[in-house]
Amino acid sequence: MIWTTWRMHRSIFLASIAIAAAFAVWLAVTGTSELNAWTIFTSHHCSIETPGVSPICMNSLSGVDRFSSVNAALCGVLPAILGLVLGAPLVAGEMQLFTNRLAWTQSITRTRWLVAKVGVGALVTVGIVGALAPLFWWWTDAAQRSIHIQPSNFDISGFVIVAYALFAFMLGVALGALIRRTGWAFAVSIPLYIGARLVVQDFLRPSFGAVSKVVDPNSGPPALAWIVRSGFVPVGRFSPAPGQAWNSYLIRMVTCQGANGVTKPAHSWKFCEALYHVRDVIQFQPENHYWALQAYESAIFLGAAIVLLGVTVAAVKRWRT
Amino acid sequence: MSDAPALEAVALGKRYGHKWGLQDCSIRLPVGRIAALVGPNGSGKSTLLRMVAGITTPSAGEIRVFGHSPQDQTVEVLRQIGYLDQERPLYRAFRVQEMLKFGRLLNPNWDDALARGYLTELEIPSDAKISHLSVGQQAQVALTMCLAKRPALLLLDEPVAALDPLAREGLMHVLLRSVVDDHTTVLLSSHAISDLATICDYVIILSRSRVLVADDLDYVLASHRLLLGSREQPPDVPPGVIVISTTHSERETALLVRVEVPITDPSWRVVEPTLEEIVLAYLREQQPKTPVLGQPRSGDLGRDTQ
Fold it and tell me: Shortest CA distance to A234 belongs to which of A283, A280, A282, A269?
């Protein structure tokens, strides 16, 4: 069944490997040029705030920026697309061409058939994205130079991208088994994949083990952190009081300090905080939470992939015409 | 389990939405028979075969293949059946030899020599791509896949449909040989009634999703008669017969009837009909009230499991 699966989906497996390899070469080349541009930029003591002081600074900064955002987008999209492209036709493709009727009347149970197909497909998906992961890490680390805990970096680095790809793969497989049309399975899986990623990124990742801290204008927020939430909350609390939001005191504080130019003379920060009995609190994920969060989020998406495998097995076993 | 019939269906039905694709189907097919499943398009032949093969779930009733339910999708049942789907599904990107490798890897009873023998005989090159073969050749490869599996029950949906007359005859010989040598039971559907009559010994007639006849060919032939009488003054229908169809020629009225006792009424000329005439009579004038011929006479399906 392993040979059969490989032979059946050989062309799409090989095409995926070829596309991944082409992108790897592209990222290595553009990443290296980005890295060189950084080297020039720093060796000439240029600053990001004022690059216009010399043409060398201007040129090297545009060299850094040239492919930066497009590469970041491609790094974000590639694992998901690979997973969906490999997953969607795995079961749906056979149902569309009726070859499932051939496969399901050989001397092998449907479950074994499915497990073999999913196993081979998942292995190819994990193999490709796993091979890309160190390259992505090099690029985000050396060329991008942002801290890893920031979502723009977190989402395309570390090992969580393998979990994303596996989730996308199983989503494609499960929807293919339910819808029985490769194209529709693919089309439906894209919004579902994006939705799942957004839910985890906006609601689960920020809260998991987040640190809260009282700040004042002198200390400022921590440098190596992803600021999740911030705002004025009642004294003694680290989060808004029930019924209040993180920005409930914002307008009052701004007005009190005269920062909007309405109130004169302006009051001090301390005075306004005392006036409303609030303090400035930030909730953040420090950089050293990176690996724990990678493991946490990988576990979520691997768990979801296992649930989808169960859905697929049930759909295939109960398949009717 | 050795005394279990090859195939037994009781009150089997399949509903598609509000429409029944097959309804109240009861069949008991003993081991070693070649059964012909005949009926017009849309009468439920493919539906029945798919349910026996376990790829369609019945909406009603029960089905047993050698005493086991094909719906359980167990290897035990899957090993016993060789199913030829009406779509002739094959992996079109595969070469013929890769198709055979697929069969070899997935079936413990696979007979590679038999498969290669057939393909050589049919002059189908083993390194040809499936998609480059003609429709007839693809049908032959699909059929070879079924036979090389060495199943105890062959389920063939329109096996002769894409075959030329010579290939049809070849297939009939192959089927006969495997029935004689391996005690294979065959259930095949077909439009070509005349071809079937030469090899079949069991007949199932389906019409409008219902079974009209399901019994031994000899019994079916013996229990039907063609009655010919004057058209102007047709004699009375003899008592105890069931009229299946009535046709008129210029001078004669012909009744195809089901009989239980010999007809002695001298006003009718009694002729033994051919299978084709019987089948056509059923398909032409299907009386909803005609009782089914050949309901399992001692069919108690629950015996093995309860």
Answer: A280
Angle (CA) B121-B123-B124 rounded to 5° is: 115
Structure pTM?
0.88
Q: Considering CB atoms only, which of B57, B78, B142 is closest to A107? A: B78
A142 close to A31: Cβ distance less than 8 angstroms = yes
Question: CA–CA distance from A295 to each of A60, A136, A208 (Å)?
Answer: 36, 17, 11
Nearest CA in chain A to B153: A105
Residues 259-278 of B with CB under 8 A from A: none
Res A261: pLDDT: 59
- Amino acid of residue A9: H
Contact A105 B145 (CB under 8 A): no
What the block records as the tokens of B182 is: 């391996």
Q: What is the ipTM of this complex?
A: 0.86
The sheet with strand B210-216 has its strands ordered as B60-65, B7-16, B19-29, B210-216, B202-207, B34-38, B185-189, B153-157, B81-84
Which pLDDT band, with edges at 50, 70 and 90, does A264 fall under? low
Q: Which residues contact A120 (CB under 8 A, 6 or more apart)?
A: A2, A5, A6, A9
Asked whether the beta carbons of A4 and B106 are under 8 A apart, the reply is yes
**Average pLDDT rounded to a whole number, residues A2-12:** 92
Span A110-155, pLDDT tens digits: 999 999 999 999 999 999 999 999 999 999 887 777 788 989 899 9
| Residue ranges of B 126-145 with Cβ closer than 8 A to chain A | 142, 145
DSSP string, B88-127: ----TTSBHHHHHHHHHHH-TT--HHHHHHHHHHTT--TT
Q: Which residues of A touch B156 (CB under 8 A)?
A: none
Note whether B57 contacts A11, CB cutoff 8 Å. Answer: no
Which one of B50, B82, B89 has the shortest CB-CB distance to A97? Answer: B89
**Residue A156: CA atoms inside 13 Å, Cβ hemisphere, count?**
23
Fold of B7-217+294-304: Rossmann fold (3.40.50)
CA distance A152 to A142: 15
Chain A hits for B149, CB-CB cut-off 8 Å, are 106-107
What are the residues whose beta carbons fall under 8 Å from the beta carbon of A250, sequence distance 6 or more? A231, A232
Asked whether B54 and B77 are in contact (CB, 8 A), the reply is yes
- Distance from chain centroid for Cα B83: 12
Burial class (CB in 10 A: 0-12, 13-18, 19+), B289: exposed
Q: Is A105–B98 a contact, with Cβ atoms under 8 angstroms apart?
A: no
Beta bridge partners of B270: B227
Give strand ranges (E) for A88-218: 211-214
Round to the nearest angstrom and report the end-to-end CA distance of chain A. Answer: 24
A181: tokens are: 């049309």
Domain boundaries, chain B: 7-217+294-304, 219-284
